[in-house]
Amino acid sequence: MKKLLFFCTMILFMLAPAQSRDKNYDKIMASKNIYEIDAFLRDAHDNDPRRKILKPRLMDLIGKYIKDAYPDDQRVPKLQEKLALLKKNPSTKISFEEMTETIKKKQRIVYENRLKEINNTSRYVANKAPSTAGTSNVNTSSYSDALTKAKSYSPSSGKASAVATPNYSASSAMMGKGEEAEFALLMNDSPVEHKNKTVQLLNKLFDNDPSSKDCIVMIENKSDCDMIVRIEGVGNTKYRLAVPAHNENSIVVQKGDYLFTSVVCGAQYASQKTVQKAIMVSLSNPK
């Protein structure tokens, strides 16, 4: 019995130095190992000054790994989730649920009406544009201007009344200048691009084929601020979707694992999602 106790004591003494070596972070500042830095961030005190350097480094290392990863890499979803946790602001509210058939029907109506508006706009601009010999191209300043004119056009009078162009400046106050310009660019597709996107969304809303390689992501913006939702997958698979305040927008993406990020009224939002079915993501004002 004494020999057994002595043997157990010796094993404990041998394991103790090994455990202390495992927790030794003396050289952590030189590390470029994802798992080593992640372990340090889990164990380190909240006020440890090394966190300010190692957290951005870990986010950068994970981002590079995801970009260079193979499509079937099983570690990607977990790393995306870890990256989301590193970026996420705890005050950001997010609800995530499957897009039901009721939501699909609602979206079909929205995009069918939008397609009618686009067709009406095209006809109105074509009728008002001066005819040019040998060409059928229509020159318009922007889709938003044409759409505004089309909505105010009265077939009975044949005239278009003056209507103010939509202004996003008030709800874009929390955006930086660069992101505000990017938002405006995304919101002002050409008529052809806008029509193609709308037709693609409608086709996908009516498509119930489970073998399809893509599906719809709908973003519902319940906040008081305009936003750009960035959807990043493996490699160079990236999508951007501009969503005005108190509005919604949709996009067709390839099925797969994605990191969703955005800035909601100044608060950082980040979440890892596996997109295999049509989904709806709802974002609200940060508390």
TrEMBL record:
Q: Which UniProt keywords apply?
A: Signal
Signal peptide positions (record):
1-18
Tell me the ranges covered by the DUF6759 domain, including all copies.
Answer: 192-285
Is the Signal keyword given for this protein? Answer: yes
Which Pfam families would you find in this protein's record? DUF6759
Q: What is this protein called?
A: DUF6759 domain-containing protein
What is the source species? Frigoriflavimonas asaccharolytica
Which taxonomic lineage does the organism of this UniProt entry have?
Bacteria, Pseudomonadati, Bacteroidota, Flavobacteriia, Flavobacteriales
